[in-house]
Design brief:
This is GRP2. One of its GO terms (molecular function) is oxidoreductase activity, acting on the CH-OH group of donors, NAD or NADP as acceptor. It holds the Pfam family Epimerase. Belongs to the NAD(P)-dependent epimerase/dehydratase family. Dihydroflavonol-4-reductase subfamily. The protein contains 13 helices and 12 strands. The protein is an alpha/beta fold. The protein has a single domain, classed as Rossmann fold, CATH 3.40.50.720. Helix 1 packs across helix 9, helix 4 packs parallel to helix 6 and helix 10 packs across helix 13. The longest helix is centred in the first third of the chain and has 23 residues. It is globular and about 55 Å long.
Length: 341
Amino acid sequence: MSSQEVVFISGATGFIAQHIIKLLIEAGYKTIGSVRSEEKGEDLKSLLKSGGLKSELFSYVVVKDIGAKGAFDEALKTHPNITVFLHAASPVTFEVADIEKDLLNPAVEGTINALNAIKEYGKNVKRVVVTSSYAAVAGFADLATPGKEVNEDSWNPITREQALTNPFLGYIGSKKLAEKALWKYVEDNKPQWEITVVNPVFVFGPQAFEVKDKSKLNASNEVINSILTAGKKKEEPQQYASYFIDVRDVAKAHVLAFEKKEAAGQRLIVSEGPFTSGEIYDIIVEDFPKLKSEIPRLDKSKGPKFEDSESIVNNEKTRKILGFKFIDLRKSVDDTVAQLQ
């Protein structure tokens, strides 16, 4: 199958995307990634090469702004042989001046632009996979439903008006609005391709390649990193209680999402299980005893209680479709910390 398929992936230098590309190349897929500059494209190519991967299977196209109208038109016109389109470009940011202009509109428009380009120019595209978020599935903050079950059919009840309240809710709202727009697009346009949406929770785990700049980790891994750097920064890390998944499992889910027939038309909630910052702290001091003296003791009594804020995730349907066992919290934390050390 892989020799015939040509896979396009947007946001190729992203945390999740690099792991996806690694898996694609290992499986022999010809892969084309969108990057923001030629420099980033060349850098990724050299990372693949130094990682012992067949870098000749990877090429890139420069797309400076994935949210711009027609952003992917040229890429699809130039590569009419693309058969799978993975839209994995999904930035996480809470630092915005205008929630509507900087978060809500770009999220919706970026998704619709990609779908329009595929419909118009992706003549050979058969499968589309889009990275969404657990934020589109469950309610948060005042909309949280502690103890209530959520599954692949659930939606965060947030409205556009509520999303405009603050940047955090703006981010949460942008994920729901973009995904709702996507499913409506599919319903209205009935394209030739089939779509799958991947909804990850907090994504932990090591970077796909060696980390040169440890100051710029993905937002989820900062939950782990903030505990490691608390001593040096002389500040108490913010504590969390939520759900986690390892990045390597998220990448695997994206590949299986287009390879498996039963994944077509589905939402996949990729979550291994609950975590608290206290549990992460315990794993670090138990498995990395040398770090114990560098890390200030975490006052777990100050941390949020899982049962006070979190819905109960039932992702049995996703697990059945994917058919593999997810990496547990200990391995995910250990591998992340080992790389950062």
